[in-house]
């Protein structure tokens, strides 16, 4: 498996160890990690700190060229919010650990010219499957599913 996806998985496991949702991401430029992050919605009581958003935030302000020449690695298919950030900053390639437990906006990304490589990592699949089974309410909140009860 790719070293950078493994780093994203480490971020996902870090989130889980902190009581959060196990989704991690790294932003890679010129074969170096320039931003890393993990879902911190629970830990920081945040409405927006998904793994991809945290990695982009931690990378800081970057030029359009750096974004365009970077690759974003994420353990789970990106949601609409994270997809919007990917498109906004002109990231041209993402590597997705898995899209079995959640299918994000991959079609939109592809339609807008973003290369999407889907790995279907057994580790990513099992990590999310177990979390969703054990924490359905937190998971539904994270993906914006209405809580009507």
Question: Could you please describe the fold and organization of this structure?
Answer:
The longest helix has 15 residues, at 3-17. Helix 6 (122-134) packs across helix 7. It is built from seven helices and five strands; from the N terminus they run αββααβαβαβαα. It has helices at residues 3-17, 51-59, 64-68, 80-88, 106-111, 122-134, 136-142; strands at residues 24-29, 32-38, 70-74, 93-96, 115-118. It is of the alpha/beta class and 149 residues long. The protein is globular, with a radius of gyration of 14 Å. It has a five-stranded mixed sheet with strand order 2-1-3-4-5. The protein is 43% helix and 17% strand.
List the helices and strands and how they pair.
Elements: H1 3-17, E1 24-29, E2 32-38, H2 51-59, H3 64-68, E3 70-74, H4 80-88, E4 93-96, H5 106-111, E5 115-118, H6 122-134, H7 136-142
Parallel strand pairs: 3-4, 4-5
Antiparallel strand pairs: 1-2, 1-3
Helix pairs in contact: 6-7
């Amino acid at each position: 498996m790719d070293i950078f996806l493994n780093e994203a998985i480490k971020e996902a496991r870090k989130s889980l160890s902190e009581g959060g949702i196990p989704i991690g991401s790294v932003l890679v430029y010129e074969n170096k990690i320039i931003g890393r992050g993990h879902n911190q919605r629970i830990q920081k009581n945040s409405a927006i700190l998904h793994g991809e958003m945290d990695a982009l935030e931690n990378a800081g302000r970057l030029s359009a060229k750096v974004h365009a020449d970077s690759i974003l690695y994420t353990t789970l298919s990106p949601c609409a919010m994270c997809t919007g950030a990917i498109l906004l900053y002109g990231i041209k390639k993402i590597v997705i650990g898995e899209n079995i437990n959640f299918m994000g906006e991959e079609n939109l990304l592809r339609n807008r010219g973003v290369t999407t490589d889907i790995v279907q990592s057994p580790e990513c699949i099992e990590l999310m499957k177990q979390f969703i089974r054990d924490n359905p309410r937190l998971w539904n909140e994270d993906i914006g599913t209405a809580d009507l009860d």
